[in-house]
Amino acid sequence: MKVRVGDREVEFEVVSTGPGLHVVRLDGRTHVLRTAADRDGVWVASGGRAWKVADAAEAGARRKAGPAPGAVTPPMPGVVVRVLVEAGARVAKGQALVVVSAMKMETALVAARAGTVTAVRAVVGAAVKPGDVLVDVAADAEEARRDG
């Protein structure tokens, strides 16, 4: 089959496949690919490099929509060094929820509103980037009335 890579069309053939391991032929050259899925797409690694592959339409829709109210996201790429809350915890506006290290500096990510933590997606040691939702906080009834 032919696939588009950047601005050119190339021959592509799957030679063999297994869980997380694929051997493909691209323009006559054989490549071993390792894959791992996460909530936003699939990571593909080969030859010491890795790429994130996502459905372009879905990724665009997520970017346009932006994070939901109460979603806690990092302001810059970094690594999660501490998770300070669990799902179900009640939090105050301004309370630290996650600590991210970026450029040798630690930043506490805080709740934008009082509420209850509905999900914790942050994992210590995980690389994160702007737009990644690390914690979701549902507003208290009074806070929700003010927001909406």
Keywords:
about 10% helix; 14 strands; 2 domains; six-stranded antiparallel beta sheet; mainly beta; four-stranded antiparallel beta sheet; OB fold (Dihydrolipoamide Acetyltransferase, E2P); 2 helices
Care to describe what's here?
The structure is a single chain. This protein has 148 residues and is mainly beta. 11% of the residues lie in helices and 53% in strands. It has two helices and 14 strands. The chain has helices at 56-65, 141-147, and strands at 2-5, 8-18, 21-26, 29-38, 41-46, 49-53, 71-72, 78-83, 90-91, 96-102, 105-110, 115-120, 127-128, 135-139. The strands form three sheets. A six-stranded antiparallel sheet has the order 1-2-3-4-5-6, with no helix packed on it. The chain is elongated and about 60 Å long. The model has no long low-confidence stretch (mean pLDDT 82).
